[in-house]
Protein 1
Amino acid sequence: MKTAAHLGSEGDFDVAIVGCGVSGANIARRLSAYRLRVAVIEKETDVSFGTSKANSGIVHGGFHHNRKYLKARLELRGALMFDELRRQLDFPFRRCGILVAALHDEEMKAVEHLYLQGVENGVIGIEMCSRERILELEPKLSQDTVGGLYAPGGGIVEPYRFVFALVESAKKNGVAFYTDYKLSATEWDAKTRRWTLRAADGRTLHARYAVNAAGLFADEVSSLFGAEEFKIQARKGEYYLLDRLTKARPGRVVFPVPTAVSKGMLVIPTVEGTVLVGPTADSAEDKTDLSTTEERLERILDSGRKMIPSISANDVITSFAGLRPCLEEDFYIEVSKKAPALVQVAGIQSPGLTASPAVGEYVKDLLKTAGLELTEKPDWDPYLPPRPKTREASPYERDELIAKDPAYGNIVCRCENVSEAEIVEAVRLGHTTLDGVKYFTRAQMGRCQGGFCAYKIIKIIMRETGLGYDQITKRGGASRILEGEL
Amino acid sequence: MKEIHFDAIVIGAGAAGMAAALEIESSGFTCALIDREDHLGGILMQCVHNGFGLHEFNEELTGPEFAERFAERVLESRVAVYLGTTVVSIRSNDVEGKEVFCSSAEHGVIRILCRSVVLAMGCRERNRGNVRIPGSRPAGVYTAGLAQRLVNIEGYIPGKNVVIIGSGDIGLIMARRMSWVGCSVKAVVEIMPYPSGLTRNIVQCLNDFNIPLHLSCRTSAIYGKDRVEGVEVTPLENGAPVMEKSFRIPCDTVLLSVGLVPENELSKEAGVELNAMTNGPQIDSTMMTSVDGVFACGNVLHVHDLVDWAAEEARRTGAFVVAWLKGERPALQVRVKAGPNVRYANPGRVESGRENKLYLRSLVVKNDAVLEVKLDGKPIRSIKKNHVQPSEMLTLSVGDKDLGGATSDSVLEISLV
């Protein structure tokens, strides 16, 4: 995201949200409905570049957690909010349903427990499946499957597209976003009752209330506010991405029977047609370490194949890792007891994406209890314009698009079928890194992984932004793409 | 929406596509040549080194020069050229033949109705995910072809200190190219015990620049946070990694030259059956795929060593398309089987009554090998080969005299001993 325009600017806000992942974005968008001046600061170059960019992209089925946990209550509430959000914001989301496949008779006991928990949680349509039933629902499942669970309300979502849409909507309704804004210090002025938030590069802004939605770094941010001391433990999840032409694509999300510590490794038909297999769950010391290892990746294919035997290493187009921010068993969303006018939103691991719309609402209510006055804006506009995609258009629809803007006819990314017009749109919305364009448009996300289109995208970014070749990065910072000119 | 009719269309305007289109047009049939890029010549345009055309023109040309020879003839011919035009789908239809939708900024969506289609889309590079190299995901990891594009056409240097993974020809060519533009190429790391590129490229691109080639070595990790900081290399002994002998090579750039894959997504969606060995279409003795009227040639069919051979294959394919358009169909076709030590043989069928040219790839590195041809288990020919290796394609001609007594159930087996 562009920052130059904001450099040195100081603003006075009612609420400042630290961190623009799926939690921060939902909080910002929810608050944008009120007469408030809201700022979001993000240390990365673009939004959704942390935990929110590398996760399973699932809207959960509401049966994995007991209602005694806040995270379960928010999950149940959040899951129900996705349909309306999709109508307003037009991001990729589909209720494809979730299956839990049991491979041994002993596992059916755990399935029964999940079923009862789901029923208790009020999940609609949840169903215990016989072997015949589950194989009918998903014929690609292993013949060893003995039965399982079906939750028709579960779904799949493109997490970064969800965040981008929330951010765009919040911006449209007046929220200010500051990227490359790495919080380095805060001060509370008891007289004016205002926080000052200083960035490492010298920018400052003021706010009456602050929200700590800093994901993996929520512990460090909490310290910067002089608030509660806690430690976020990163837990790494590695994934394989399979080509959209794989024969192993299931119709629904397939879970194994969970263990005490993890929901296990899943096979996920992504909304956009590819297949994800993963994640692993291993503690990581370094909160920036997104490396993958051979042993873990092998484990992923092995466990994926146990459920869907047709998964083939030949279909792998890439692997990646994400880090979950783990604190305790539950989410920690509270008004700080130590620092004034601060709401902590920490430890948002799974089912954080599912819960996030409800987290937005919950934090809005917490801010109200802490004294923030909320007056609805009469002119709040929850809608974003629909974004045509050449990938989804029929030949006749494409022809109409090209008549309006010829750039829809120029296919830049052949693997995912993305036109120049869509890339230009991403850049104009502020996604000016190769990864930002990738997450917004899917260009470079297909089987060639940018081998054919990366140079074209670099040229479009340079043309649209005026950036020099040496300012083009993969994901901001020092991740420069080109090191010299001939 | 624009609607146009042709006897044949050729998808892809690289060497193969241009050669096929010229052949079809020369017989008086109407033909369109379609390419998604805005120039003729395909990937040849970024191959500014020489070594092209020795068979086709008896001259040593650069890639663009080779392409230009064909492009000039195409532009002088009646071949209808559509550049900046991406084929979106191919469907077969009983009434109209083939219905092909294309997308172009200039023309919008074009609906082409034609009797036959030639697939000549070429191939793409395998990437990091395909060969599953673990580690972090910093900037600075590129396929060799992308780096070639950046340097030779866009005029940018992707990085200064380079390690090349895989010893495919593009990687070798880029080792030399990067050295010429002032970069330091630290090493080429190859997992196999032998190089996968042509011998001449090992000599001219590595040996002449003192670039070390680590054979039987696997890249076990790429490391670096924002930008590549190095690679970890693990030697293999008897195929197994020896972790304690792992070493690191610091670098800021990794180029991947780990093989090419025919680009057949469009073919698959058109219902064309693929050969698991080549990743290209299954073809009969006339280069026709499993879909009637759809032909394939060049690197989309199987990856060639030399563009000269891709062009030659495409010209023959063009002639087969002409024959098909005239209503000629092969008489007796005999199935070709890749026997021991042969990875594949293309085409998958030969026709009696004429000469058939076959391309094959060895599975082994071997001196003093013998290419054995058997019809229904009976040896009919054996040909001495001084040296065979997987990276060098072999050719074989099978004529009518070889196929005497063959029936439609016969099998022609080709093996290397």
Note: Chain A has a mean pLDDT of 95.
Protein 2
Amino acid sequence: MTPTADLIKRRLEALHPTALHLVDDSAAHAGHAGARESGGGHFHLTIVSDAFQGKTLVARHRMVYTALADLMQQKIHALQIEAMTPDQF
Amino acid sequence: MSIQDTIREQVTAHPVVLYMKGSPQFPMCGFSANAAQILKACGVDKPFTVDVLQNPEIRQGIKEFANWPTIPQLYIKGEFVGGSDIMREMYESGELKQMLDTAKG
């Protein structure tokens, strides 16, 4: 696992996920304009947590972004998010 | 006028606004390309789009405006709707087309 992926997983423990799957897609995007400019990685996250219960998609994504706030500035260039409750998983 | 005022004016002056990298014809990022395609699939052929790569102040300002750290961002009738993942989920459920149809009147 890359250091950034490891950091992401550790930060997301704050949401007490019952399942967490993170794919590092950075290699597939290396060299495109945005990636060159910021140098951050591309990730695809699937996260399942009771904390998303009763929350809109926007609220769920904001919870993820908040947990990763400092990483969003530099280390993460793009993050695809699927945020589900246990009964949606 | 502050950059936040400029953004507020943009999102209220147009029923559908997409902040993206590049243009729908020449998107500069895969997520922006997807967002523009979803709008097209919902029947919005010519959305009002803002290319944040042409305007660094808006690029930073829009993140603060919505308290949302990524681009693209979709606004319908002045309300922040979401980024490309949320647009896709709402497109697949039919909710997005419904919102857009209502917004277009």
Note: Chain A has five helices and three strands.
Protein 3
Amino acid sequence: MRLLPLLLLALCGALAADLIEPNAHPVGTYAQFVNLGEYPDASFYIEYKPIFNSTPGARYPVTGDAWMSINGGYKFDSFYLVMLKPGQPEAKAYVPRYNYLPDTDPRNVVRSSYRVAYYSQNQSISLEEVGSNESDSPSSLFSAAVVAVLLLGSAAAIWKIKGGRV
Amino acid sequence: MNFAISLFITLALETAVLLAIFKGQKKSLVIACSVFASTLTYGLFWFAVIPAYSTASPFSLPFFAYPLLVLCYEGFAFVAEAAIYKRLLEKVGWKRALAASFAANAASFVAGIMLGAIF
């Protein structure tokens, strides 16, 4: 009976871990691998690894520079890019996944492009992010244009109304 | 909420408050000053403060980080906008400029909270 409060607390913690953070919204993640053509003898897969299961989950083949969905499952499940080369152990690299973004970030989808680097000494791979929809989204360009027009327009109006006495 | 929509709501509210307070001034000058001051501070918040906060991995920051940031920004906007009104409007002292800036920013802050709760 003494364990009941502890069990309830543990349950509360588990439930709270599933809630969306305050001032945040859920987003989807997509990844693109731009230089797979540099490894013609290798095949690539996205591997889904559930957190509560020690065995790897499903694998989805990656072809060319197609956008791959890094979504699904539980929010703490992981995704990896797997490289298979004949006669060599498989190499894996973690693919970042975004579940939520703060409401200050208007994106509903995070798209990231990566370059794959292969290290023959230890047969491992790593990912280098080479682009995303974070910095050059049309909405932020539009917002910057709105601010620039309003600032310049109002400054010009003040200058004109005050006859250049500012 | 969308950047452009929230900026235009801010501009409309703050300009209305300033027009009501600075009755003896040229209306066109009050409108231009209001648009200039609000766009400057709002643009700074949107393009400098928010990206800095977002890059700092907001989910790992303490719960009071965002309210504290908003409080600091509102304090800055209050003083900066008052300074612009004092400098650009005719015969306006610090007291009146600060009071007008406080009223305008309070109106848009409350409206922002109310609209945020609705949308």
Note: Residues 3-118 of chain B form one domain.
